[in-house]
Amino acid sequence: MASKAQVEMVEKIIDYRFASKDYLHQALTAARGEGEDRDDGNRALAQIGAHWFDTLLMILLMRMGASKEDKANLRIEFTRKDHFTFAAKRTGISQCIKYSSKPGSESSTVLRYAINAIIGAVLLDTASHTIGTTLGVITRYVYADNDYTMIDPTFDSLSDLMPSITETDQIPPNLATSVHHLSDAQLICDDPFVNLSMFDSQMSTDGLSIIPDYAGVMTAESSLSYSTDDPIIQTLPRQDSPAVSSLVLCSPRLPRATIAPESNHLQGSLKKRDEQAKSSANTSIPDSTLREFLNKERMKCSAQHLPPPEETYFTPEIHNALRSPTHESIKPLLPLLITMGSPDAIVSLRGMICNIRAQPSCHSCRLQDGLSPARRYSLIEQLEHSASTMQLMKWYHIYELFRECGGPDTVSSSGYANSTPASFPIGQKCLGNPVHHGDANVSKTMMKDIFPDMDPSTDEYKKQFRRIQKLRKLGQRLHALIDKFGKGILGLMVGRSSSGGFDIPVSDTMLFKPTEGAFACFISLLESSQGDSLRAFGDAVWGVLRPALFGTLSGDVFDIERLDPEYILRQVKGSPGLLGIIC
């Protein structure tokens, strides 16, 4: 079971004091497998929490009037495994879990179980199963980080569905509080597309949480209408906690058009073409987001007299790959075949550079030549739980660590990092795959460099060894992309989140999970459809990205920083106009 100290720490994190600590003890205890006095741990609570979370989400989406398709898409976005993993690590909850001693005990699945189990524990601990209390806890530690802030420009926020909860130790059986209306507070950013709060977990005014919407407007009032007589709006007070209404649970943006035709006289013909293209795309591409993206690109191409996507990057080969993937493991990466280097990516890149310029704290994690493996590994761990802007910096550190510790040829040659082929005995035979043996030898040598005093027989050594192996594989994948398309390619993999802020839609797991053959197929698809274009854009991006990552930005801002993001969004992916914006 989790310790008393771990339980108390989680209570502080989620700002909720349990009446029965047994629920939280169980929620923080991971299931154990064979050979460990088998115990289901928090599995039952995790199931309760997952269903309760899903129920609350559906209630909120129903209130918003979301369509069936939007409900499905938003549910997927809200409940991503990586999202819960990030939340657990960022808040410190991951340090409070009683893990199993088996390999993989700190996997993303285990962390997701713990998050859901805590939600279930709050539900069971709340006498009347109030919605408001659980929503407050979910908001406080699952969606508190601005990397996952999601506001719809139409609905603004769901704060009005989260009523105030008075501070009292007693829970009257028939109390139904009215909804707490936030004041009409708005702060307008100088640059609506630069959200500095992505580096800070929360911004507030007079104690009220202020969340930027998709255009950067700080909103503290909802435009949703509701009735305070609705039982869903009625809540019970929670013990020893501030008002939950000061915390905002935001909804993802629903799909909406962002780029309109530039000329009124073209609207009729463009609308007709768009409807025809949309009808064709809807029957072949399962991802609605990609369908919408391609439809917008076709409209822009027609207005600017440029060839449509089908004549550039959206080749029949790419079309078939999206419709019927030959490798299931690269399916999560396939949207990049369409979105990599898009205007959205360039807008996000612009915002990232502006944020790094405005945030001196980025300098401490900057890229540097000649760092020791131990120092670079420490920076990678430090960046692991940072905002999306810093995640891109983490990728480049991982790439450099892989390159400096032997690069892609170590397994097939010496099998040793930071040394010579003579460092290992020659001609020694052993059973098993020689590539796997070589990879293990590289990882062992890196362990000596990074943790010289760690005992190889300890569980901590085994944990760090597995971490090193994963980083090497991720570094290998990043190296393959950079080797083919140039260092700037990683900057083209960024995107915009549902709220319009900077985001990296590709997780580490998506990159290292595919087999070698599947990942090679993904790179081959990129090369055949848009290889030359990606190299040209990658070179241009690296010119502005390198000073930002190495902490050498001068006082002179880049041209891309001065441009209106809407102007960038009007450009066509791969077009000379978009390339000229970066150069």
From TrEMBL:
Biased composition (Polar residues): 278-287
SUPFAM superfamilies assigned: RNase III domain-like
Region (Disordered): 260-288
GO MF: ribonuclease III activity
GO biological process: RNA processing
Protein known as: RNase III domain-containing protein
Originating organism: Aspergillus ibericus CBS 121593
The organism's taxonomic lineage, starting at the top: Eukaryota, Fungi, Dikarya, Ascomycota, Pezizomycotina
